[in-house]
Amino acid sequence: MLSRRQDPIVAVATAPGRGAVGIVRASGRDLTLLIEAVCGRSLAARHATFVPFRAGDGSAIDQGLAIHFPAPHSYTGEDVLELQAHGGPVVLQLLLARCLEVGAGIGLRLAEPGEFTQRAYLNDKLDLAQAEAVSDLIDASTEAAARSASRSLAGGFSAEVHALRDRLITLRMLVEATLDFPEEEIDFLQKADARGQLARIVEQLDALLDRTRQGALLREGIKVVIAGQPNVGKSSLLNALAGAELAIVTPIPGTTRDKVSETIQIEGVPVHVIDTAGLRETHDEVERIGVERSWAEIEGADALLFLHDLTRLGEPAYDAADAAIAARLPAALAQAGRLVPVFNKADAAPAKRAQGLVVSAKTGAGLDGLRRRLLELAGWHASPEGLFIARTRHVQALRRTSEHLTLARAQAESADPALDLLAEELRLAQMALGEITGEFSADDLLGEIFSRFCIGK
Ligand SMILES: Nc1nc2c(ncn2[C@@H]2O[C@H](COP(=O)(O)OP(=O)(O)OP(=O)(O)O)[C@@H](O)[C@H]2O)c(=O)[nH]1
Ligand SMILES: [Mg+2]
């Protein structure tokens, strides 16, 4: 019996719903039987052949193109069969059912999410960072994210990681060799400029870490919550930023009851903007739940736009209500500089001044400054050109690499370096770096990564 990792798999590879063309894809060690039963003939390698797809009774389910990619020259590295049929959900389900029926004898089963790409990884067609880029390319919500995912998929990010790893290995070899000749150790390290090598590795790592952080930002974006008293123009601001009438705007305080969110792009960075119910004491049950949700959103915000109505500044009751909200805001927000006071309706109060950003959701004045401020808060300073898509996981692995290198450096630079400790820190640094491309990865991490893919990929 084959292990689950090796038995043949099949899935509809195209998105659910109607489409001009839909694809059923199978992968396994040997798909000859499946090909002959469904296509009624054998197929030339990597040639599109127009065939009727046959049902069990010999009738045609549909006609379309069949392509056989014999192992190892395929996406997964195994035998792959692609059946391109008409893209109706029923046709594709019939075709899928027929494949499962024919393939029952060889253990053919439905693929799990990401299983095709997981096999590509296990068969060394892709490394882990590239496999993740496949999923990121499919999920990309902005053009910049898609382009940088494509760069990562082509191996751009992995190549930088490998370059760093190679320099690390060279240095490790030197240190390990020195360990074997203890009487010459200090001299040996000095001649080979081990400290200089280490310093250059750290420099290269810092640069990569910075770009990786930017790449992760491009993928994950930031969550910006707009909150404040009722009627200050929160929904108007969301609409102005999004350039569409998403949230209902009326002069009646308490219009927004539930959160409304939209992802906008600022210089290619996805910014998830959330409009919330105005914060006030209320006896209205629906509004009260809305206000509770507003507070929950505020807790999880990367940045909070605390919106005020400029025209009402200086009214005692209004200011007291703002002060009460400010007192309840999580202290961490302000400490991290993620609390942004914004004063709206500048068009209606041209003479008033305020401490913070002054905008008008109505005329659009000040919105460019607000967008710039959000990018600054996110820590964005790159241009998306030439960036690789990356994930928080990668940033964390690089941070751990950096920590080990810092310890290694402390040893190398001490008056009496302990070479075995230096060697150990360098080894740990290489391990942390290797997690990115999957050279050293735990099975549960792999499960976690591939389970987030769509089925058929
Ligand atoms: N003059 C002026 N009026 C604005 C501006 N922004 C919003 N308004 C008006 O203020 C009123 C309230 O706007 P909303 O966007 O619904 O306010 P809100 O903060 O979402 O209100 P709630 O959902 O009730 O909490 C509406 O009449 C808007 O037309 C602005 O920049 N200038
Ligand atoms: Mg509103």
Task: Please tell me about this protein's structure.
The strands form two sheets. This protein has a six-stranded mixed β-sheet, with helices on one face. Strands 8-9-7-10-11-12 form a six-stranded mixed β-sheet, sandwiched between helices. It is 47% helix and 17% strand. It is built from 16 helices and twelve strands. It has three domains: 2-126, Probable tRNA modification gtpase trme, domain 1 (Gyrase A, domain 2); 143-217 and 391-438, Up-down Bundle (Four Helix Bundle (Hemerythrin (Met), subunit A)); 227-378, P-loop containing nucleotide triphosphate hydrolases (Rossmann fold, 3-Layer(aba) Sandwich), CATH 3.40.50.300. The chain is flat. The model has no long low-confidence stretch (mean pLDDT 92). The chain has 457 residues and is an alpha/beta fold. It has helices at 32-39, 89-103, 115-122, 128-139, 143-153, 156-180, 185-191, 194-220, 234-242, 285-299, 316-328, 331-335, 367-378, 392-413, 419-437, 443-451, and strands spanning 9-12, 19-28, 49-54, 60-69, 79-87, 109-110, 222-228, 260-266, 269-275, 303-309, 339-344, 357-358. The structure holds guanosine-5'-triphosphate (GTP) and magnesium ion (MG). Magnesium ion binds at residues 234-235, 247, 255-256, 275. Magnesium ion is lined by residues 234-235, 247, 255-256, 275.
